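Minutes, project huddle
Topic: does the predicted pose make sense with WQD bound?
PN asked that the exact inputs be recorded in the minutes so nobody has to dig through chat later. Recorded below.
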Amino acid sequence: MKILVTGGLGFIGSHTVVELQNEGFDVVIADDLSNSSINVLDGITAITGKKPEFEQIDLRDKKAVQDFFKKHDNVSGVIHFAASKAVGESVENPLLYYENNIGVLVYLLQELQKKEESYFIFSSSCTVYGQAEKMPITEDAPVQAAMSPYGNTKQIGEEIIRDTAGVTGINAILLRYFNPVGAHASAHIGELPIGVPQNLVPFITQTAIGLREQLSVFGDDYPTPDGTCIRDYIHVVDLAKAHVTALKRLIEKKNKEKVEVFNLGTGKGNSVLEVINTFEKVSGKKLNYKIVDRRAGDITEAYADTRKANDVLGWKAELALDDALSSAWKWEQKIRNK
Ligand code: WQD
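Predicted holo structure (tokens), as shared on screen:
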């Protein structure tokens, strides 16, 4: 059985390819290299000793998707990462997000629905909850009106999958990520943000290595213990392993419904200042940062209720924030040859 990983040269995708290969799966990657580098293929191979098949393909091209599935007709599982994911950019350029994040999903599902039976793992996000009322956040917390076109594409994507799985041989699991951080312990693969990082951890490591002058902390006047926002930072390797567990659940027909949803987090919330302090501890570096105004669209607090993932999916995050930050730092030093 061959597994297609779309966006498999990206941050979470590449770590998931490693874990799939570790579990003996035969992997083909489809990536357009718009937000990743072909060198990641060597990184994956350096870790597993097996070079995955790779096709550079623009999945927004329906014919190209059809041709791909004709060529790789033994693909029966898809883990779909390929999507645009910058919240701010999605506000400025919504149609790019609807074309890429919704159009591509439709083309992939149109190919899978031709098969007797298939498996689809969807990269969703805790963004669908907006600012949830209750902490920790369970899977049945209400999906709130999206705060950005990016978040909306995740909500719409989930609905498209539900509507489709109900009337086809597609079985799906929606994985709602909290905040993915860190890098593979080998430092052969990690996060490669293009341009100025939007996310906290890559901005921290780039500041520590001297690429950025200073980290801006977006607000310390939130209703939290130290005034900065709280998030659930999950190690990308733990997150990758959850995808393999979810895929095996579908293959082994352990799923209770055609579409299941799981929150993927550590179940622990950390504030921005706690992340900074932890980074300083694990790296031995003093971080240059200043408190500035809040960033529009940020929510105060989000961390996962992990009971369903632990008890039903049978997956639990094993790596702590210290591990994530030290691996992110090791990766930053490696790619800057420092
Ligand atoms: C975390 C915290 C910021 C940068 C986003 C997307 C979400 C998902 C993960 C795709 C916040 C603060 C950040 C900085 C800061 N992406 N921060 N200075 O916003 O929780 O989630 O990425 O699925 O959909 O919304 O992550 O890393 O941007 O921010 O103070 O330079 O760090 O205010 O409190 P976020 P983040």
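Observations noted during the meeting:
- Residues 200-231+267-332 form a domain with the UDP-galactose 4-epimerase; domain 1 fold (CATH 3.90.25.10).
- Residues 85, 87, 125, 127, 179, 198-200, 203, 215-218, 229, 231, 272, 295, 298 surround WQD (CB under 6 Å).
No decisions taken; revisit at the next huddle.
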